[in-house]
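Tokens in:
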């Protein structure tokens, strides 16, 4: 949901059910101020910590507040859940500090006004500055509703994990629903909303059952078609038209890195070292959230690696080496066919501001071919990103620096990236050495912003080539735009081009180098992907996600923390894998280890199709919880579906000797029949 850029066209619909009121309000307030449009539904099911009686007494005291000067015109007190949420998000702008004391309460222990202001900010009493233009515009982007009114009943609804009750409220702690509290203090529509929600859920259930039946029919039709195609279907897999070489390199494993010790490895480098040399199969390294203080290097003889974090703000690789450009990189990728997603690489020598002497301190160095970065971060001051050689693709990345912080001789496209200038200097230093080289930097749809005046680039070598296309330039871009550096008088060999840019710094009338020259390369991914490797890598990554998630879920099941299980379940739903039979089986097994039978049964019921492993997993769930009768019922159903392949071992875990005899007798009769 985090917008990042602050320019958000799409409206996000948040299902507020079982979210904590304070955390939900603070997160939504920040997103509104960032430009995100938000709709919140089912406000009546928001949770408040503390029992209903206690919360009712507190709210009744709040309702009795009046203005001293004119009590008949007291403050407006909302009673509807949606309005209470709206007021919580808006906050109170009128906190004041007077003579070193705070009017928040009479016996405040904080006497220093500056400290008190800090306390007010920390507790977020001031959510949105609603009396300013910015705050007024932010509130206009918010809509709140009880229930789920049209058209949002047919819109994808999202949750905010940081505000969920199951993750934020301790088990056993008292809580109440906002709808219950509102009905107790004067809101008269609680029963009406519940009735409307009941009817909506009945309609949704009918739609879901229809989709479920269609999914089963589709699977059945596909199997029938495959049987009829026969040999023709096999011929499709042979080399020829439509042959995909990436199909034979599907992954045989995934590696989980967790610095807390709950994964296969506690460091990223140890996971990379475990991959055999001259690797030919795609291997996914899933890096859990955290700051990893280490230098990471992917050797040239270890290709086909997907390095995947949990968000560039949550998964970071940090080191502080400097002085030598070649030896200082925090992250170095020398191999071909590498995909990196949702990780930040930081060289902390001078980042953010340590006042050290300005020296080369590389955050990432890329020399391998066919390397892609998605939603990654690169942070440093001088020489942040060394785009040395090969074809590279950067999408929606954030690059921070000051001097030559994107440099090298790579053939690269930067699409939709945020380029943040920390101090005055140069953004690019491209190193094309002769006119026949295909390399160059293309910045397409990027956003250039920062704190100090900056040049778009200077030539590192004599035939440097850089293009900015349809990008947003803030006023920090120097009117001269470019600097010829050591190649004054040879500007005709340099290609610095600008096309279709906009913003305060996009005026090209005062550029020191002609930026309207011909650019002889295509402006899309064809420039770097003649064999369409970007598309093939994205397909492999989707297949990886489909195949590795059962193993990730099993790893989470071994931690025995139901809150982490709910988080991974949410990720499954977000990625659209909830209907996959293998992922469903893993979820059933995970909830079985947690001892949460109801959720295991719910996942089992949602699966559009089941196999022997699915039923076997449910029997294991009942066995671990000693629910013998339910286990027998499940086993009898399985006997009719899978006569020969009934799972014997899980049944022996809980059955008595007499039950075992009865079971084997019924099993023998089923086989004979």
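Residues out:
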């Amino acid at each position: 949901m985090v917008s990042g850029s602050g320019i958000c066209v799409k409206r996000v619909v948040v299902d507020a059910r079982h979210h904590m009121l304070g955390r939900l309000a603070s997160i939504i307030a920040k997103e509104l101020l960032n430009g995100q449009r938000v709709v919140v539904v089912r406000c009546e099911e928001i949770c408040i910590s503390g029992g209903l009686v206690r919360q009712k007494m507190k709210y009744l005291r709040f309702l009795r507040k009046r203005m001293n000067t004119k009590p008949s015109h007291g403050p407006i007190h909302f009673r509807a859940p949606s309005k209470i949420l709206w007021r919580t998000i808006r906050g109170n702008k009128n906190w004041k500090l007077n003579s070193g004391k705070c009017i928040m309460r009479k016996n405040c222990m904080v006497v220093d006004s500056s400290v008190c202001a800090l306390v007010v900010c920390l507790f977020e009493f001031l959510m949105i500055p609603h009396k300013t233009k910015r705050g007024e515009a932010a509130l206009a982007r918010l809509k709140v509703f009880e229930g789920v009114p049209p058209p949002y009943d047919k819109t994808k609804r999202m949750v905010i994990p940081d505000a969920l009750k199951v993750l934020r409220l301790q088990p056993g702690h008292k809580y109440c629903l906002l709808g219950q509290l509102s009905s107790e203090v004067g809101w008269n529509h609680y029963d009406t909303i519940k009735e409307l929600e009941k009817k909506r859920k009945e309609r949704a259930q009918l739609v879901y059952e229809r989709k479920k039946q269609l999914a089963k029919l589709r699977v059945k039709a596909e199997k029938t078609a495959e049987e009829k195609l026969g040999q023709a279907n096999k011929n499709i897999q042979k080399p020829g038209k439509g042959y995909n070489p990436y199909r034979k390199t599907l992954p045989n494993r995934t590696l989980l890195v967790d610095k807390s010790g709950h994964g296969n490895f506690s460091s990223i480098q140890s996971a990379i070292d475990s991959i055999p040399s001259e690797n030919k199969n795609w291997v996914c390294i899933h890096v859990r959230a955290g700051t990893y203080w280490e230098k990471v290097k992917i050797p040239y003889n270890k290709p086909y690696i997907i390095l995947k974090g949990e968000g560039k703000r949550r998964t970071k690789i940090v080191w502080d080496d400097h002085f030598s450009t070649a030896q200082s990189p925090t992250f170095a990728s020398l191999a071909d066919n590498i995909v990196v997603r949702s990780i930040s690489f930081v060289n902390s020598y001078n980042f953010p501001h340590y006042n050290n002497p300005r020296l080369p301190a590389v955050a990432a160095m890329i020399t391998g071919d066919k390397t892609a970065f998605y939603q990654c971060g690169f942070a440093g001051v001088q020489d942040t990103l060394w785009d040395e050689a090969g074809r590279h693709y950067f999408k929606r990345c954030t690059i921070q620096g000051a001097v030559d912080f994107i440099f090298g001789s790579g053939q690269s496209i930067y699409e939709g990236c945020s380029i943040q200038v920390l101090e005055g200097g140069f953004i690019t230093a491209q190193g094309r050495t002769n006119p026949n080289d295909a390399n160059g930097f293309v910045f397409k749809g990027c956003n250039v912003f920062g704190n100090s005046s900056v040049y778009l680039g200077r030539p590192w070598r004599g035939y440097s080539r850089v293009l900015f296309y349809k990008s947003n330039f803030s006023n920090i871009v120097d009117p001269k735009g470019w600097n010829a550096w050591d190649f004054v008088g040879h500007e005709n060999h340099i290609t610095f081009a600008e096309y279709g840019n906009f913003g305060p710094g996009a005026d090209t009338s005062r550029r020191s180098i002609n930026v309207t020259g011909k650019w002889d390369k295509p402006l899309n991914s064809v420039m770097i992907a003649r064999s369409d490797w970007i598309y093939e890598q994205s397909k492999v990554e989707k297949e990886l996600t489909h195949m590795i998630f059962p193993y990730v879920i099993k790893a989470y099941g071994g931690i025995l923390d139901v809150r982490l299980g709910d988080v991974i379940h949410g990720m499954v739903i977000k990625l659209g894998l909830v209907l996959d039979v293998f992922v469903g089986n893993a979820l059933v097994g995970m909830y079985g280890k947690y001892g949460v039978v109801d959720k295991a049964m719910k996942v089992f019921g949602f699966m559009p199709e089941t196999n022997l492993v699915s039923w076997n997993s449910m029997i294991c769930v009942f066995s671990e919880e000693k629910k013998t009768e339910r286990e027998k019922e499940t086993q009898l159903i399985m006997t009719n579906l899978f006569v020969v392949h009934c799972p014997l071992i899980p049944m022996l875990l809980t059955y008595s000797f007499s039950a075992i005899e009865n079971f084997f007798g019924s099993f023998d009769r089923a086989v004979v029949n």
